[in-house]
Amino acid sequence: MCLKKLRDHIPASSFMLIRILRINDPPRQIEVEMHQVQSAPGGTRIRGMLVDRAHMAAYESHCAELIAIGAELVSRWPENARPRAIGLITDGQILAINPGRPEARAYSWLHDHLSGQSPCVPVIGETSEPFAIARMAIAN
Description:
Shape: globular
Helix content: 25-40%
Number of domains: 1
Largest sheet: 6 strands, antiparallel
Low-confidence stretches: 136-140
């Protein structure tokens, strides 16, 4: 499973946002963002991390399965309402999607998920509270 392979590349207290662009019109493209939850004076914060080319190549080699999962999820929308891209979020344990905002294009998408305004739902993995560590960062 792709998550087991990715888990080794996701630092502790971090999560990954994977956007699969052109999901309906191959060739598909992948964008990867890494975010880390950090302690800070007065609480915690989420910090975006740069993904270098070497790590990006490693992620892409592990992401063929994620592309297939994303394509299958998009196929569940009616044909005339399918999103052009899909965003998946993972901490290496759980893979989730936001069905209300599937394209994951704006920074507010991540904030809305973490604040609970537009939460993601797990696709793979079992939990009642996905990404609890990141949700704590928004609450503090």
